[in-house]
Amino acid sequence: MAAASSELLTGWCLFGLSLLAILAFCWVYVRKYQSRRESEVISTITAIFALAIALITSALLPVDIFLVSYVKNQNGTFKEWADTNVTRQIEDTVLYGYYTLYSIILFSVFLWIPFVYFYYEEKDEDDASTCSHVQTALKYTLGFLMVCTVLLLIGAFVPLDVPQKGNSTEWEKVKFLFEELGSSHGLAALSFSISSLTLIGMLAAVTYTAYGMSALPLNLIKGTRSPTYERLENTEDIEEVEQHILRIKSKCKDGRPLPTRDRRNLQQLEERLRTLRRRERHLEFIEKSCWTKFCGAMRPLKIIWGVFFILVALLFTISLFLSNLDKALHSAGINSGFIILGTNLTNPLNMLLPVLQTVFPLDYILITTIIMYFIFTSMAGIRNMGIWFFWIRLYKIRRGKTRPQALLFLCMILLLIVLHTSYMIYSLAPQYVMYGSQKYLVQHNMTPVDGQPGNVTTYVPKVCDADAPEDQCTITRTYLFLHKFWFFSAAYYFGNWAFIAVFLIGLIVSCCKGKKSVIEGEVDEDDSDISDDEPCVYYG
C-alpha cells in the first residue's frame, strides 16, 4: 500500500509539473499572437486560462485510461492494495476531475468568454463609461446563460429510462424524475450540456482540424518562397503600379477633371501601391533577419517533421475510416448511436496499441501524441483559415497582430474541439478507451497429458471486453460521458465521415497549391484588422 501511495504521489508531482508546462506554453502562445497595440490584461488572462483548460482537459483521457489500468497486473489479477474501496476512490477521483473541468468549460463558454468579448466590443464602439460597458456585456451574456440553463435542465429532467408502470400518477412520474436526477449525481445534466458543446466542437473539428491535418505537414515539407525573389517580384509590381498611376494622372494635366471610372481606378491603384510598399518593408526586414537564416538551416528538420506529421495524419484517417466502416456494417444502426461492443474490422491504431501495452508507457505516449497532434493541427487550421461565420471572415489570426476578440474566439473554438477529441480517440480504439490495458481471468479446463482421468482447471488472462464481469474490469469515466445519449453518438458518427471527406479535400488542395509567401497573411489588401507597421520576427 505504501509503494502504491508513493507511485501515486510521484504521478501527482508529474501532473503538477505538466500543469506548469501547460501554463507556460499558453502564456507564450497567446503573447506570440496578440496585438501589441490592442493588448488588454483581462482578455489576455482569459485567453491563457481558456487555452490551459483545453490542454488540461485533453490530458485527462490518458490519465483516466492509466488509472483504470493501474489497479490490475498484466496476469489479470488485482494488485494487493487495489481492493474495492481503493478502486472506487480512483474512479471517483477521475469523475470529480471531469466534473470540475467540464464545469469550468461550461462557465468559460457560456459566461466568462462571452462577457469579456462583448465588453471589448462595446469598448471599441463607443467611449461610454466602464459601468455602461459592463451592463451591456452582461445583457448579452444573459442569453448564453439561458442556453446553458436550458441544456442542464434538459439533461437533468429527461431520464434515459421511463417508469415501467403504465398507470403511474403524475406525482409518481415527477418523483421518478427527481430520483433519476439524484441517483446520477448530476451526471446526465452535465453530460447533456457537454455533449451539446461537443457537437459544436465536431463542426469546428471538421472545419479547422481536418484542414490543418493536411495543410500543416505539406507546408512544412514545401517550405516558403525565397524572400529575395519575392522582394524582386514586389519591386517590379511597384514599378508597374506607379506607371499606371502616372498614366492616369497625365490625363488631367491640362486641368480637366478625371472621369469617374479613372478616379475609381486611381484610388484602387493607390491603395494597391500602399500595400506593395508595406510588403516591401516586411520583405526587406525578413531578408536581413537572422531568424530567416536560422529557419533556412532548419529546413531538413522541418521536412522530417512534415513527413512524420503526414504519416500520423494518414494513420489517423485510415483508422477512423475502418472504425466507421465497422460501425456501418456491424452496429445496430442509428437508433443505437452506431455503438458496437468490440472490434470486427481491425484498424492500424487498434492493432498498434495492444503491442505497445507490453512496454510501459509506450501506449500512453502514443495516445498523448495523437491528442496533442490533434490540438496543434487545430491551431494550424484556425491560423491558416481565420475565424469565419459562414461566408463572412470575422478575424485573422496573425503573429503579433491578433485582436483580443479574435484570441477569445480562438480559445473558445479550441475548447470545443478538445471536447470532441475524446470521441475521436474512442472511434479509433473503442476497447482501449473503455478498459485500457486491463485483463481478467477466464476459467479454462485442461485434460491432463499423462492420461489420468479428470480435468485440470486453470485461469487464463484475457483482455477486458464487453463480455467481462463488472467486478473484474473497470470502465473509464470518459466512456460514461461519451455514451450517455445515443443521438449524440449518431451525430458524431456522421461527423467522422465528414471529417474524412474534408481531410481528403484539404490534402488535394494543399498538394496543388504552391509554396506560401514568407509573409503569408501578414500584409493583405482586404485586411480588416488594425495593422501594425512593425514587421514580425517569427516567420518561416
TrEMBL record:
Magnesium found in the keyword field: no
GO BP: protein localization to lysosome
Record's keyword annotation contains Transmembrane helix: yes
Membrane topology classification: Multi-pass membrane protein
Record-level Gene Ontology MF annotations: cobalamin binding
InterPro entries named in the record: LMBD1_LysCbl_Transport, LMBR1-like_membr_prot
Location within or outside the cell: Lysosome membrane
Keywords: Cobalamin, Cobalt, Lysosome, Membrane, Transmembrane, Transmembrane helix, Transport
Pfam families: LMBR1 (PF04791)
Transmembrane portions of the chain: 12-30, 42-63, 99-120, 140-160, 187-211, 303-322, 364-394, 406-426, 485-509
GO cellular-component term (any): lysosomal membrane
Principal location listed in the UniProt entry: membrane
Similarity comment: Belongs to the LIMR family. LMBRD1 subfamily.
Protein name: Lysosomal cobalamin transport escort protein LMBD1
Lineage: Eukaryota, Metazoa, Chordata, Craniata, Vertebrata
